[in-house]
Specification:
The complex is a heterodimer. Chain A is α+β, with helices and mostly antiparallel strands. Chain A folds into 4 domains: 1-80 and 157-240, P-loop containing nucleotide triphosphate hydrolases (Rossmann fold), CATH 3.40.50; 82-151, no CATH class; 241-285, no CATH class; 287-356, OB fold (Dihydrolipoamide Acetyltransferase, E2P) (Beta Barrel). Chain A has helices at 47-55, 97-101, 112-125, 141-153, 171-188, 199-205, 223-228, 233-238; strands at 7-18, 21-32, 36-40, 62-67, 70-71, 82-85, 159-163, 191-196, 208-213, 216-221, 243-253, 256-261, 265-270, 283-286, 292-294, 303-314, 318-325, 331-337, 350-355, 361-363. Chain A has a 6-stranded mixed β-sheet, sandwiched between helices. A 5-stranded antiparallel β-sheet of chain A has the order 13-12-11-14-20, with no helix packed on it. In chain A, strands 15-19-16-17-18 form a 5-stranded antiparallel β-sheet, with no helix packed on it. The two termini of chain A are 32 Å apart. Chain B is mostly helical. Chain B has a single domain, classed as MetI-like (MetI-like fold, Orthogonal Bundle). Chains A and B meet through strand 6 of A and helix 7 and helix 8 of B.
C-alpha cells in the first residue's frame, strides 16, 4: 500500500517562537503526495501550529516549509496551493451554502453557469446535493462540516488541511465521518493532513502519523509501526494501552539484547524492538492483547508466567484483567475476547499468563 | 415575597422619579396654556406650529444635524480602526492607549470643554461648527469603540483566515467578510454617536461661535416664558426621535451578534 510516492511537503528544521515560548523545536520530515497524514499529539504539542505554517497563517522563525518543492517563505496564505477545513468550520454566516462553497471561485474567471455546476458537483461529493439555497446558519454540525469540506475542495488544492474537524461532532457522527473522509480522500486523491489529539482517530484514518510532543516530532511512521514498535515510552503510552515492566539489561550482542524483566524472568529482545537507548531506566512494554490467560490444560506457545487476578473490567465483548505477575508487585493489564466456553474469572483467581518475547518492546 | 415588597416599592418610585419629568414634556406640549402648571387647560397643537415657524430654531436645528452627522461619521470611522486594532492586534502600550480612548466617557464634560477652549483660544483657532465637531468626536469615541469592539469580538477569527485561504487578499477579505458582518455594529455606533451629539450642551456651548446649535438655542429660549411651550413641543419630538434611533441601533447591534453566531456580551440597552 505504501508504494513510494513523490514528496508533497517537506519540513526542514522548522522553528517557531511565541515570545519566549519555543512552540516548534526543529521539525523535520516529509509528507508524500496523495497521502492521508496525521499530526497527532496532546494539546499544546504544536500540531496545530505546524498545520498553520503549511497554510501560511503562521510564519516560522527558522528553517523552511516546502510545498511541492517550492519554498513557502514569501508565499502568503492566499497564494498557497492548500485549503483548510477549520475546527470551527468558519462557514460565512451571511452567505448561503452555495455562496460559501463557491467563494473560492470568485477569482477563477469561470462563467456563472460553470461556477454553479462546480458548486453543485462539490456539494454532491460531500452528500449535500440540493442544499445550495439553504442559509448557512440553518445547518446541523455535520452539515456545516460537509460544507466546509466542499468549500475547501472546490479549488482542487494540492493539499487539504484539516484542523480537528471531527472534534465538535458526537461519537456516532464522528465515527461515520471518519469513514467518509477516508473514502473522500481516496476519491479525490489529494494529500490530506489531519490534526487530531485522538490517537484512535489517527490510527483509523492515516497512512502515516507524526506523533508530536512539546514542539518536536517524537516518531513519524505508519499506524502499525507506531502501535507495535513505538520508539519511546512516551509514544507507547500515548498510543493505545501498554504495560511497562521494570527490567535490567544484561548484555547486548549484535541484534539481540538480553534482559531480566521483573515477574517475566530472563528473555531476549530483537534489536528491532529495542529502539536506541535514551538513558531512561529500562522497562519492557507489552500490549494487553499480546498477553493471554491460559484456561485448564491450555499450553503457552512460547512463555508462561503465574499470576493472580487483582481487578476485572467487563466490557461486553471483551474483559480486561489486571494481573499481578509471578508473586511480584508488577501488575499488567491484559484483554481477553469473551467467546463461548471462556468464563469471566473472579478477582483473586490464580492464573497462568501466556506471552511472547517477540511481541515485547524494550525502552531504556 | 413579603420581604421584597419594600424594595419593589423603592424600585417603582425610583423609575417614577426618573421618567415622570420626561412624561411632563408631551403633556404640556399639547396643553392649551402658556403657563406650565396644572390643571391642564385643554388640547392644542398650536405650540408645534409655533415651534416650526421659528426661523432661528430651524437654523439651529440645521447646524445641529450637520454637526451630528459629521461627528457620527468621523467617530465611527475612527472607532473602526481603534476597535479592530484592539481586538485583533497586540501592540506595546495597548492597554493604556485603549484606556485613554475610553476615558472621556467618565471625564466631566465641563473639564473637557474648558481644556479644549483654552487650547483652541491660545492657538487662535476661531470657534465654529468645526470646533464643536472636534469636541463631539472626542466625546463619542468611547461609545463608538465600545460598540464596535463588541462587534469585532463576536467575529470568529477563522472566518478571515478562511477567506484568505480561499484566495482573497486582506483587503478583499475585509470588504467581503469582515465589513458585512460588523455592519450592524457600524450602524449602531453611528446612530448612538448621532444621538449623543445632537443633544449635547456643554461642549456645544463652550466651543460654539455666536450661532447656536439646537441645545444651546433651547436653553436660551427658556428665559422667555412665552417661548417655553414651543420648546416643550420640540423636546417632545426629540424624545420620540431619540427613542426611535436607540431602538434601531440596538436592533442592529443584536442582529449583528446573532448573525456572526456569537453570544451577547453587553451593550447599552
Amino acid at each position: 500500500m505504501t508504494t513510494e510516492r513523490p514528496t508533497m511537503i517537506e519540513f526542514k528544521d522548522v522553528h517557531k517562537y511565541y515570545g519566549d515560548y519555543h512552540a516548534l523545536r526543529g521539525i523535520n520530515g516529509t509528507i508524500r503526495a496523495g497521502e492521508f497524514f496525521s499530526l497527532l499529539g496532546p494539546s499544546g504539542c504544536g500540531k496545530t501550529t505546524l498545520l498553520r505554517t503549511i497554510a501560511g497563517f503562521e510564519g516560522i522563525d527558522k528553517g523552511a516549509v516546502l510545498i511541492d518543492g517550492k519554498d513557502m517563505a514569501r508565499v502568503p496564505a492566499n497564494a498557497r496551493p492548500t485549503n483548510m477545513v477549520f475546527q470551527s468550520y468558519a462557514i460565512f454566516p451571511h452567505m448561503s451554502v452555495a455562496e460559501n462553497v463557491g467563494f473560492g471561485l470568485r477569482r477563477s474567471g469561470l462563467s456563472a453557469a460553470e461556477k454553479a455546476k462546480a458548486v453543485e458537483d462539490a456539494l454532491g461529493m460531500v452528500g449535500l446535493k440540493g442544499y445550495g439555497g439553504r442559509a448557512a446558519h440553518a445547518l446541523s454540525g455535520g452539515q456545516r462540516q460537509r460544507v466546509a469540506l466542499a468549500r475547501a475542495l472546490i479549488l482542487k488544492p494540492k493539499v487539504l488541511l484539516l484542523d480537528e474537524p471531527l472534534s465538535a461532532l458526537d461519537k456516532k457522527m464522528r465515527e461515520h465521518m471518519q469513514v467518509e473522509l477516508i473514502k473522500l480522500q481516496r476519491q479525490v486523491g489529494i494529500t490530506f493532513i489531519l490534526v487530531t489529539h485522538d490517537q484512535e482517530e489517527a490510527l483509523v484514518m492515516s497512512d502515516r502519523i507524526a506523533v508530536m510532543f512539546e514542539g518536536e516530532i517524537a516518531q513519524l511512521a505508519d499506524p502499525e509501526t507506531l502501535y507495535r514498535r513505538p520508539n519511546s515510552k512516551k509514544v507507547a503510552d500515548f498510543i493505545g494501552t501498554m504495560n511497562f515492566i521494570p527490567a535490567t539489561v544484561l548484555s547486548e550482542t549484535g541484534h539481540k539484547v538480553e534482559v531480566e524483566a521483573k515477574g517475566l524472568g530472563h528473555l531476549t529482545v530483537d534489536a528491532a524492538m529495542a529502539p536506541p537507548a535514551r538513558g531512561e531506566s529500562p522497562v519492557v512494554g507489552l500490549r494487553p492483547e499480546t498477553l493471554t490467560l491460559l484456561y485448564d490444560d491450555q499450553k503457552a506457545a512460547e512463555r508462561e508466567t503465574d499470576g493472580v487476578i487483582d481487578e476485572v473490567i467487563y466490557f461486553g465483548d471483551m474483559t480486561y484483567y489486571d494481573v499481578y505477575l509471578g508473586g511480584t508487585d508488577v501488575e499488567v493489564r491484559l484483554s481477553m475476547r469473551n467467546v463461548p466456553g471462556r468464563p469471566v474469572l473472579d478477582v483473586g483467581t490464580k492464573v497462568r499468563v501466556a506471552w511472547s518475547p517477540s511481541a515485547l518492546v524494550l525502552f531504556r | 415575597m413579603k420581604q421584597g415588597s419594600g424594595l419593589r416599592g423603592y424600585a417603582f418610585l425610583y423609575l417614577l422619579f426618573l421618567y415622570a419629568p420626561i412624561i411632563i414634556l408631551p403633556v404640556f406640549a399639547f396643553n392649551n396654556s402658556q403657563v406650565v402648571a396644572f390643571p391642564l387647560k385643554g388640547f392644542t397643537t398650536q405650540w408645534f406650529g409655533e415651534m416650526w415657524a421659528d426661523a432661528n430654531l430651524r437654523a439651529a436645528l440645521g447646524r445641529s444635524l450637520v454637526i451630528a452627522v459629521v461627528t457620527a461619521s468621523v467617530a465611527t470611522i475612527l472607532g473602526i480602526f481603534a476597535a479592530r486594532a484592539s481586538v485583533r492586534y497586540a501592540f506595546p502600550g495597548k492597554a493604556p492607549v485603549m484606556g485613554l480612548i475610553m476615558l472621556p466617557m467618565v471625564l466631566p464634560d465641563i473639564v473637557v470643554a474648558m481644556a479644549l477652549l483654552i487650547v483652541l483660544l491660545s492657538l487662535s483657532v476661531p470657534l465654529s461648527m468645526l470646533t464643536i465637531i472636534m469636541g463631539h468626536v472626542l466625546l463619542c469615541m468611547p461609545f463608538a469603540v465600545a460598540i464596535l469592539t463588541s462587534a469585532f469580538q463576536s467575529l470568529d477569527k477563522s472566518l478571515e483566515e478562511a477567506a484568505l485561504d480561499l484566495g482573497e487578499t486582506p483587503a478583499s477579505t475585509f470588504r467581503l467578510i469582515i465589513l458585512p458582518l460588523v455592519m450592524p455594529g457600524i450602524i449602531s455606533s453611528f446612530l448612538i454617536c448621532f444621538t449623543i451629539s445632537i443633544d449635547e450642551f456643554v461642549l456645544a456651548n463652550f466651543l460654539g461661535s455666536g450661532k447656536p446649535v439646537l441645545s444651546v438655542y433651547i436653553f436660551g429660549q427658556f428665559r422667555f416664558p412665552a417661548k417655553v411651550p414651543a420648546m416643550l413641543a420640540l423636546g417632545t419630538l426629540l424624545v420620540a426621535f431619540s427613542i426611535v434611533l436607540l431602538a434601531i441601533a440596538e436592533y442592529f447591534r443584536r442582529r449583528g451578534i446573532a448573525r456572526a453566531g456569537g453570544k451577547d456580551t453587553g451593550g447599552f440597552l
